[in-house]
Amino acid sequence: MFKAVVYVTLKESVLDPQGNAVQGSLHSLGFDEVRDVRVGRYMEVELEAANKEAAEERLTEMCEKLLANTVIEDYHFTVTEG
Questions:
Q1: Which of 7, 16, 56, 61 lies at a C-alpha separation of 20 to 30 Å from 50?
Q2: What residue ranges define each of the domains in the chain, with the CATH number in brackets?
Q3: Residue 76 bridge partners (DSSP)
Q4: pTM score, two decimals?
């Protein structure tokens, strides 16, 4: 059994209106030091695999096919056993 943590974020070249709204709200609350906010998604996935390399391969397929829109989003993940 492996556990993966997957992060999906907009590519740097893509505008992030949700991040801009959060930044504006932080400024209105007095957090003027905030210069940029990018909003993304966090997912935990548990999966069965023969080894860590096989788990990473399957996770890459999951991200490419469903979890991330690779036209406008980047993703990365970590895999741990257990």
A1: 7
A2: 2-81 (3.30.1280.10)
A3: 7
A4: 0.86
Look up residue 38 and give its two tokens.
């990018």
Residue 20 has pLDDT above 90, yes or no: yes
- Quickly state the pLDDT bin for 82 (edges 50, 70, 90): confident
* C-alpha–C-alpha distance, residues 26 and 24, integer Å: 5
Task: Tell me which residue has tokens 């992030």.
Answer: 16
d(CA 22, CA 64): 28
Distance CA 53, CA 48 (A): 12
Structure token pair of residue 17: 């209106």
